[in-house]
Amino acid sequence: MLAAVARVLQEELRDHDLVGRFGGEEFVVLLPRLSGHDGQGELRQIAERVRGRISGTRRDDDPAARPVADLPAGRADGAPGGRAGIGITVSIGGAVFPGDGGGLTTLLEVADSALYAAKRAGRDTVRISRHPFPATEPERA
Fold first, then answer.
1. Catalytic pick among 25, 26, 109, 139
2. CA–CA separation, 116 vs 133, rounded Å?
3. In which domain, by residue range, is 60 found?
4. How many domains would you assign to the chain?
5. Which of 33, 51, 117, 137 pairs with 91 at a CA distance of 20 to 30 A?
6. What CATH number corresponds to the domain at position 89?
7. Active site residue 11
């Protein structure tokens, strides 16, 4: 499943963007040279396109979005058989340099807060921050 998500990221990002796995089921994406006043608009468009591809939705206002046809089918534990397929969703949190912070650590913290804000909003959501989200996050089980 992670390989399929990584493939979607590679397909949707620009040639000069960087993607790395950031532990567990999280990825970090570096998008240099975003256009617009502060890059937020382009970041949101890219994030929504990725979200739509991974969740298998098609947005009427984004003709480039399309379902991921090659996600593996099978049981939730990865074994073949069982359900016809498994549905996945993605929560995306983003931060923009320099508006959200001038250093890597700060940007990662703000993006992480945005990610948890997206999860609290019901998952399968994008949150881009120019204003910090609450620093306290729910305890992880």
1. 25
2. 9
3. 2-129
4. 1
5. 33
6. 3.30.70.270
7. no
